[in-house]
Specification:
The chain is α/β, with parallel strands linked by helices. Helix content is about 55%, strand content about 20%. The longest helix has about 45 residues.
């Protein structure tokens, strides 16, 4: 439940702290005192759109925060799923809106997305106001309300996943059926491209190898000259006075000194090693001449021709041979898809049939539970309506099958009423008056609150369009709801206010030239005065006080 509420810089509220107890709490006060602002503040905390006009004039931001205690199990599980933990069995939610347009939410001081704020607040409290009455008239919301009562929201979510799979498969089938002529044109183009690339029989790395070979062939004369020069320098050629000969002579000379100078032996061995290495280099230099006797012209022409052919393919299919090969592979896959489209389509149709059968089975089970729940909901709402002085009003639910799968199954639902005995059941939007709608809404909400397990229900002017005995019965109903749920109610009805466990009086006053809202918890005499004020009259009379006291005492006995 909401343990305490802090509001700062919202409309006429400068700074306001309200502590709430359990049970049934009413908020009353003169028109314009700030009752609706408190509800709007709670609306911000539930993730409602942040209107900068709510920010108090002259301030740069507004903020609302609430401390929750005795958290229900569903909210606890959601908090755990979000990766948060409860401290001292309490939870703090807050939201801050700046005049520059920024809006931030926090959970126990940690920043959270607005989507998380909405999800979590919906598990902690519900606000029921005039907008809910209009929502109740919208047929699009009736099926979800019935599902909440039936407790099948999880089953509907499972079905919805299957429904989304059906949509994806249908879209794939449609893509095969769309524009057959375009597929034929694409088939011919892909075949041409594949043949064009395959004709050259490309190999990865081929272009680099050909370029290197062409460069070698074009440098044959220079290669032959340089290699032979290197060989003569090393081996000495015909004269035998090359580097190998000279190093050998030096090594032999030093080896003759080993008996006199022992260090000369190591130098001699190093020179012999150099001699062998120079002989290897000379041999390797000569091996570079292999193939240099050929005429390079024909080979160069052949290489250049192939490189030119590769260049033409690069202009069409990719900047490298590897990209051209990848393009061909992709084209082959696309062609295979087109040429096997009938088989693929057949497989998709089989899959669609399987998914449809599974979805139909899930939807049928959901429909059965909806029909059973509809009967129970009608009975409970009718019972509540009779208590709320609407004995002649009949409430019904039209549950009709749909022609095709929908995101919620194979049903459409609409709430119906008959306002007077003997009249035909009609959609609520065509019949219900403001007072009737308020009572129907209260009947539905009281039933739904039982199955939702929400800790706090907030009612904003539930007494609109009703008075007298009916208002009293609405108050009794709220009192009964409060036996299992914290109920906060903004009201102008003395019949409702006199039944509260706690009564908060909202007032406004001028402080330093600015209007400010204040909240005061009323004691017994304060309640008598406020309820007498609500009963009417310019001046409160002893008769009104007596009536107020009597209403309060009567409420204590209920």
């Amino acid at each position: 439940m909401i343990f305490s509420l802090h509001i700062e810089n919202i409309a006429v509220i400068k700074s306001l702290d309200i502590d709430f107890g359990g049970g049934f709490t009413v908020l009353s006060g003169e028109t314009g005192a700030g009752k609706s602002i408190i509800i709007d503040s709670l609306g911000l905390l539930s993730g409602a759109r942040a209107d900068k006009e709510l920010i108090r004039r002259g301030e740069s931001y507004c903020e609302v925060s609430a401390l929750f205690s005795d958290i229900n199990r569903g909210a606890r599980e959601l908090i755990a799923d979000l990766g948060f933990s409860l401290e001292d069995d309490t939870l703090m939610l807050s939201r801050r809106v700046s005049r520059e347009g920024g809006s931030g939410a926090r959970l126990n001081g940690r920043a959270i997305p607005l989507s998380v704020l909405k999800e979590l607040s919906s598990a902690l409290f519900n606000i029921h106001g005039q907008s809910d009455n209009h929502r109740l008239l919208d047929k699009a919301n009736h099926l979800s309300l019935l599902d909440r009562f039936a407790g099948i929201c999880d089953e509907v979510a499972v079905y919805e996943k299957k429904y989304k799979e059906i949509l994806l498969v249908r879209a794939e089938i449609d893509s095969f059926n769309r524009d057959i002529r375009e597929n034929n044109r694409l088939r011919e183009m892909l075949r041409y491209q594949i043949d064009d690339i395959n004709a050259l029989k490309l190999k990865a790395g081929e272009e680099e190898a050909l370029t290197a070979e062409s460069k070698r062939l074009q440098s044959l004369e220079r290669i032959k000259k340089s290699c032979m020069l290197a060989d003569r320098a090393l081996s000495g050629g015909e004269k035998g006075a090359g580097a190998v000969y000279l190093v050998d002579r030096a090594a032999a000379a030093l080896s003759q000194l080993t008996d006199a100078i022992p260090e000369a032996e190591a130098l001699s061995e190093k020179l012999f090693d150099i001699k062998y290495e120079l002989e290897d280099i000379s041999s390797s230099a000569l091996s570079l001449l292999d193939g240099c006797d050929e005429d390079p012209t024909a080979r160069i022409d052949k290489i250049e021709g192939r490189l030119d052919a590769i260049s033409k393919l690069k202009r069409k299919y990719g900047s490298t041979v590897e990209e051209i090969i990848a393009y061909r592979d992709n084209a082959e896959k696309r062609l295979e898809t087109i040429e096997n489209s009938d088989e693929i389509k057949e497989e998709l149709e089989k899959r669609l049939e399987k998914l449809s059968n599974e979805a139909r089975r899930l939807a049928a089970a959901i429909s059965d539970k909806r029909r059973s729940a509809a009967d129970d909901l009608i009975a409970k709402v009718t019972e509540t309506l009779e208590f709320l002085d609407m004995p002649k009003v009949r409430f019904g639910i039209s549950l009709e099958p749909t022609a095709d799968f929908t995101p919620t199954g194979l049903d459409s639902a609409e709430f119906l009423i008959s306002a007077n005995a003997g009249e035909e059941m009609m959609p609520m939007i065509k019949i219900a008056s403001g007072g009737e709608l308020a009572r129907i809404m209260l009947s539905l909400k009281s039933v739904l609150n039982e199955c939702d397990g929400i800790d706090t229900a907030i009612f904003d002017e539930i007494d609109t369009g009703i008075s007298g005995k009916t208002s009293r019965k609405v108050g009794i109903k709220l009192r009964r709801i409060a036996e299992g749920t914290q109920v906060l109610c903004v009201t102008h009805s003395a019949q409702i206010a006199s039944l509260a466990n706690e009564h908060l009086f909202i007032s406004k006053s001028e402080v330093e030239g600015r209007v400010q809202t204040a909240v005061r918890r009323l004691d017994d005499e304060g309640r008598v005065e406020e309820i007498a004020r609500i009963l009417g009259g310019i001046e409160i009379s002893d008769l009104q006080r007596s009536a107020a006291r009597e209403m309060i005492e009567e409420g204590k006995k209920l």
